[in-house]
Amino acid sequence: MKLMTKDDNFFFLLGSLLVLFFLSAVVHQFKDDAQDYVLALLVLCMSTSIVGVHRKQTFYRSWYAVMITVVVISGSISVFEDYDLSLVTMFAMLFFVLAQTFSALKQVMMPRKVTLNQIVGSICVYLLFGLSFAFIYLIQLELFVAPFNGLESKPWLDNLFEVIYFSFITLTTVGYGDISPVLAIPKFFVFLESITGSFYLAIMVASLVSSHLSQKETS
């Protein structure tokens, strides 16, 4: 059996993200009032995504473990008890995703050689950008009154897939218009995400092409 190495780390992350997006869509479409299912799905995908973190990176593993624990405790209290700790859960999720994004971006940008792992990692970073902004929008839905047109005021787990959809539509600058920001702060994060998505693609494609050309010249 092949041991896990740092060259395999992004495959776990990519798989967990794709599973999260697809299953959250399935739950959203076919299961009403399924907050406990969505929370379990989030925790499962968070846990799976850190399997590929190198074993020697104890700081990252410890940080991820703390964030997962916070999400499990605060999310369970919010779902099964009368206390609303939604903001605690969402901030823990946001910090977890931002840590994943920083770690992945550092690994993708540093190597000079273009490998399959680096390409998969660049895709993961793009997906993590979209997921990060999704949690930022969910936090705004909790803090402000009607910050977005097209999104109802309901528990954040019920809004999760709709906000993920809006985030990626914004990140790719498609902008269908079925969901749109109303307040100034949400508008700021929407155009910030659009700029991030456009510049990331341009910079990453240029970086990969440059690395590939350098690779060919030295071979």
TrEMBL record:
Q: Which UniProt keywords apply?
A: Membrane, Transmembrane, Transmembrane helix
For this protein, the record's Gene3D superfamilies field holds:
1.10.287.70
Name of the protein described by the UniProt record: Ion channel
Cited Pfam families = Ion_trans_2
Record has Magnesium as a keyword = no
List all membrane-crossing ranges: 37-55, 62-80, 86-105, 117-139, 159-176, 188-209
Q: In this protein, which residues make up the domain named Potassium channel?
A: 126-209
Organism from which the protein derives: Vibrio thalassae
